[in-house]
Specification:
Elements lengths: L1 H15 L8 E5 L2 E4 L5 E9 L4 E9 L5 E7 L4 E7 L3 E11 L6 E7 L2
Antiparallel strand pairs: 1-2, 2-8, 3-4, 4-7, 5-6, 5-8
Length: 114
C-alpha cells in the first residue's frame, strides 16, 4: 500500500511540476521567424525623472549572430517605431521627452532569420 501511495504521489508531483512551453515565434517562410524577440535580444523601457517630468527611453541589446528587426509600441506616445538591430550591437533610443508618465509598457513584435 505504501509503495502504491508513493508511486501515486510521485506521478502527481511529476505531472504537476511539468512546465508548459509556448511557441513565442512562428515560421514566416523563407527561414524567417516572426513573433516575440529571441532570447539573445533584450529590451527594456525606462522612465527617467527630470526636473519636473520624465524622459522615456528604450534600451536594446542584440547578442544574436543575426539582425533582429522589431516593431516597438510604447503606451506613453502610443506610437510604433521600427528598429533593425545588427548583430552584437546595443543602443538606447529616446521615445519621449518631458512627459508626465512615470513608467512605460512596451509591446514588441520582431522578425529575424537565424
Amino acid at each position: 500500500m505504501r509503495s502504491f501511495l508513493a508511486l501515486g504521489l510521485g506521478l502527481a508531483l511529476g505531472l504537476g511540476c511539468q512546465s508548459k512551453t509556448q511557441n513565442l515565434s512562428v515560421d514566416a517562410g523563407g527561414g524567417m521567424r516572426k513573433g516575440a524577440p529571441p532570447m539573445c535580444y533584450q529590451y527594456r523601457g525606462e522612465a527617467r525623472k527630470t526636473y519636473d517630468a520624465y524622459d522615456i527611453f528604450l534600451h536594446l541589446n542584440n547578442t544574436c549572430s543575426y539582425t533582429v528587426d522589431c516593431l516597438v509600441y510604447d503606451d506613453v506616445t502610443e506610437k510604433q517605431v521600427q528598429l533593425a538591430m545588427p548583430p552584437y550591437q546595443a543602443a538606447d533610443y529616446a521615445l519621449a521627452q518631458n512627459v508626465q508618465a512615470s513608467r512605460v509598457d512596451l509591446s514588441v513584435e520582431c522578425t529575424w532569420k537565424p
